Amino acid sequence: MGEIGAEVAAKIAEKEYNVKVILSGSKTGPDSIITLNNELAVFEAKSSKNMSELVRNFRDAEKQVKRRDKAGIAVSVYIEKETGFFECKHKYVPGSSSKVNRYEGEEP
Where are the alpha helices (DSSP H) in 2-73? Predict the structure, then answer.
């Protein structure tokens, strides 16, 4: 993701979800680890120069959050550099709550 796109996506998440996003700058792992609802969560963002890629990139960001087995925020941003116009999609992605301890309720 481009640096400008990452910064725009981070500002959107901060405004819409009342979180602080510090971008990792790393090529691997989540774009940021954030605190959301008093728990560690992930921030994944995608940007594009093509409006037609906005939804596909959003789905990719959402899948990345889900693969990390934590709650998080997925953001996709389209930015038109010449005019400054941008469009975005964002969503809170709940963490995996279906994990069950196989020994829960049993004597060890």
Answer: 3-17, 54-67
Instruction: Tell me which residue of 1, 102, 15 sits closest to 45, measured CA to CA.
Output: 1
What topology does CATH give the domain 3-93?
Trna Endonuclease; Chain: A, domain 1 (3.40.1350)
- Which two tokens mark 60? 């990719």
Q: What is the pLDDT of residue 26?
A: 83
Q: Cα–Cα–Cα angle for 76, 74, 98, nearest 5°?
A: 150
Confidence of residue 93 (pLDDT cuts 50, 70, 90): very high
Predicted TM-score (pTM) of the model is: 0.82
Beta strands in the chain (DSSP E): 32-36, 39-48, 72-79, 86-93
Q: Would you kindly state where each structural domain of the chain is located, as residue ranges?
A: 3-93
Per-state percent for the chain, helix, strand, coil, to nearest 5: 30, 30, 40
C-alpha R_g of the chain:
16
CA pair distance 2, 49, nearest whole angstrom: 10
